[in-house]
Amino acid sequence: MSELLWEIEKEGRIGTKLPESGVPQREITDDLPERMVRRGKIGLPQVAEPQIVRHFVNMSVKNHNVDRGFYPLGSCTMKYNPKINERLAALPGFLNLHPLAPESSVQGALKLMAHLGELLCKIGGMDAITLQPAAGAHGEFTGLMTIRRYHEAQGNPRKKVVIPDSSHGTNPASIVFTGWEPVEIKSGPDGRIDLEALKPHLNEDLAALMVTNPNTLGIFEKDIKRVADMLHDVGAQLYMDGANMNALLGIARPGDFGVDALHYNLHKTFSTPHGGGGPGSGPVAVKEHLAEFLPKPVVVHRNGEYHLDFDRPNSLGKVQAFWGAFGVMVKAYAYILTLGADGLRRVSEGAILNSNYLLALLREHYELPYDATPMHEFVLSGEFLKKYGIKTLDVAKRLLDFGFHAPTIYFPLIVHEALMIEPTETESTEDIEKFAEAMIQIRREAEENPEILKEAPHNTPVRRLDEVRANKNPVLSWWDIAAGE
């Protein structure tokens, strides 16, 4: 290889053929577009170590992150990620595992997976689990496919899945991907499932209802047990999107109020950071009647050892190349063991308390479309700011000037100019009050000097982007960048 590299540099090109080695000769550039082939020397600059270190450190501090400041994204739960969990996941015995290693050499990893699954089932009040799904949406698909296999085994594959109009955007996509038809029903005036709107869909065509509880307004579905009974009376199943489970830990178990299948977001509820699109993990837990249809393999304990059990004839099959996002599992397992049952309950109680305290500070300054006591998050509206020429997007951009990441905006869709705010359990009273002060000042600026908001942010490394142009002409790949598109 060193001879090959020398030839490349000497010739000033990439098209050098591979040296004789019994391997068929071919051009290195055969698979590269002509515009991507270098015809001259690389010309890399010579940079001293201090300069390159400073470059990357300066880049890192230009990005907002949960270690740098308040990150109140609603439903995304950018919570505290203990650094010890990162160290544990990086231990050589975990980090250097190969997914095809013999079972006898990975007993510790298999035991961790088995025990984590048991703990997650206990937390959710469920009976069986798969750890394979790689994210929340992947968990939705896996849970729905498990329900689909169940209905097929009953001789009635069914056709439709009901979702509230406040559901997560991935819910209808997962339903379609599973081969069913999503049916949206309107929420009631209190922001919860409208039982009367549900009743017309209760028939043998209904496969399931997907619900997030607490829902995307942060409001607990107090009629959830009745909803479950209504579904079960017609043979339909209740699927729960577990994105907001951090409001229920140690307080309520979905399995106890009738949920048949539930996915967890380990990267939200159990401490793995998930900014930038990953990593993620979306285990799916189910009640006993669905267990045989879960993906294979599952970890089983037999004759004093742990094994991957592939002998599951009714399984829907594998949903990922190997066994799941193992590093995320290690972090979740460490988080659960560190806190224990009492600690997990305090997590949810802290999240609920912080949310309601922040709402109490802001409710006189912004609209509250659904005036119900929320749990871990709440949704305000900036609709009234339109009379000053201000949109919710302007509020979000202005928050950056105060050193805060913006909350989720324009979601859920049932709230116009929505601001979905989730402080999580880990923010201090002082930080919550500072955020509230910034929001109140922004409200005042909207009335007195709206141009400040329209031109925000003012002191970030990158000023306001052209959102319309970014949507119409997205740069989606490195090929686009290389082409100058």
Shape: globular
Termini distance? 35 Å
Number of strands: 12
How is the quaternary structure best described?
single chain
Query: Could you state the CATH homologous superfamily of the largest domain?
Result: Type I PLP-dependent aspartate aminotransferase-like (Major domain)
Biggest beta sheet summary: 7 strands, mixed
**Residue-averaged pLDDT:** 90
- CATH-assigned fold name of the largest domain: Aspartate Aminotransferase, domain 2
**SS-based structural class?**
alpha/beta
Radius of gyration: 26 Å
Concise summary:
The chain has helices spanning about 1-10, 50-60, 85-90, 90-95, 105-125, 135-155, 170-180, 195-200, 225-230, 265-270, 325-360, 390-400, 430-450, 450-455, 465-470, 480; strands at about 130, 160-165, 180-185, 205-210, 235-240, 260-265, 285, 300, 305-310, 380, 410, 420.
Structural commentary:
By secondary structure, this protein is of the alpha/beta class. It folds into 3 domains: 2-36, no CATH class; 83-338, 3-Layer(aba) Sandwich (Aspartate Aminotransferase, domain 2); 347-472, Aspartate Aminotransferase, domain 1. Helix content is 37%, strand content 11%. It contains 16 helices and 12 strands. It has helices at residues 2-11, 49-62, 83-89, 92-95, 107-124, 136-153, 170-178, 195-198, 224-232, 266-269, 326-362, 392-401, 429-448, 451-454, 467-472, 478-482; strands spanning 128-130, 160-164, 181-185, 206-212, 237-242, 261-264, 284-286, 298-302, 305-309, 378-381, 408-409, 418-421. A 7-stranded mixed β-sheet has the order 1-7-6-5-4-2-3, with helices on both faces. β8 (298-302) and β9 (305-309) form a beta hairpin. α5 (107-124) runs parallel beside α11 (326-362), α6 packs parallel to α7 (170-178) and α11 packs across α13. The longest helix has 37 residues, at 326-362. The model is unreliable at 1-18 (pLDDT under 50).
